């Protein structure tokens, strides 16, 4: 196995998981991308970070992109002599917009690109499986890798799968990003070990409806984004976010907690529409409001 000369680059989109009822299974890629570059060097590890995480994330072997790269090199059979990595982060950290999945997908992608013939050694399914193993659940890494709207899960043997599904081109998103983070670990810790059968049944129906709503029946999005399995249980970690979801939904806007929160995602009808402008005007003071198109593409070499 040999490494390629010179730098390789990747751009990876933000993602919103769950989308209401599809806990740990539905995810959507959004048009907001981290940009990364990596190169094999003679020795050592040089990591540079700008944007989100600069001055906060460790610049050594603990860096999430580096860990994902190391795992991929191990899978491919050899570590490089040295490594240089540059990360330009525009996806907010610990806000429910898939920044850690973007880092993992970037890492596995860059490592594969640095290996001569890497795409033949590790196909898309193997790359997805590796990224999902590193993240622990597939609902962010799958759309980060494949783009668009993706249904994903894990089989009994532990392997992960992902199936892209259609998104009506009329559908876009507005995200409301709070100023304070919530860790996914903390948000997952609030979930009960068991849920009432009626709640599980309600979510199963809504999840199925959401696939239809996103693929061409946007008028069903409000009903289809109802959730009974995770959002309310997480209220204590993000009370303002839950209050915004409820206020928007009371006004007929299909709004959900994005991933493990605390960002709120509302479905809209195009980044430049009047409805999107009206939604952005509802952004709470001190939060960031962004109108984002659905990203049809996932990770791409840049
Ligand atoms: N499905 C995950 C959760 C997404 O809600 O915990 C966060 O990564």
TrEMBL record:
A molecular function (GO) term: homoserine kinase activity
Can you say where in the cell this protein is located?
Cytoplasm
Under Enzyme Commission nomenclature, its number is: 2.7.1.39
> Which residues belong to any copy of the GHMP kinase C-terminal domain?
211-275
Report whether Magnesium shows up as a keyword of the record.
no
Enzymatic reactions: L-homoserine + ATP = O-phospho-L-homoserine + ADP + H(+)
Annotated residues that bind ATP are located at: 92-102
Pathway(s) it belongs to: Amino-acid biosynthesis; L-threonine biosynthesis; L-threonine from L-aspartate: step 4/5
- Could you confirm whether the keyword Amino-acid biosynthesis appears in this record? yes
The record's keywords, sorted A to Z, are:
Amino-acid biosynthesis, ATP-binding, Cytoplasm, Kinase, Nucleotide-binding, Threonine biosynthesis, Transferase
Q: Which domain of life is it from?
A: Bacteria
Residue ranges annotated for the GHMP kinase N-terminal domain, each copy included: 64-148
Question: Which InterPro entries does the record associate with it?
Answer: GHMP_kinase_C_dom, GHMP_kinase_C_sf, GHMP_kinase_N_dom, GHMP_knse_ATP-bd_CS, Homoserine_kinase, Ribosomal_Su5_D2-typ_SF, Ribsml_uS5_D2-typ_fold_subgr
Q: Which Pfam families match?
A: GHMP_kinases_C (PF08544), GHMP_kinases_N (PF00288)
Q: What class of enzyme is it?
A: transferase
> What's its job?
Catalyzes the ATP-dependent phosphorylation of L-homoserine to L-homoserine phosphate.
- Family in the record: Belongs to the GHMP kinase family. Homoserine kinase subfamily.
Q: What is this protein called?
A: Homoserine kinase
Organism annotation: Nocardioides ginsengisoli
Lineage of origin: Bacteria, Bacillati, Actinomycetota, Actinomycetes, Propionibacteriales
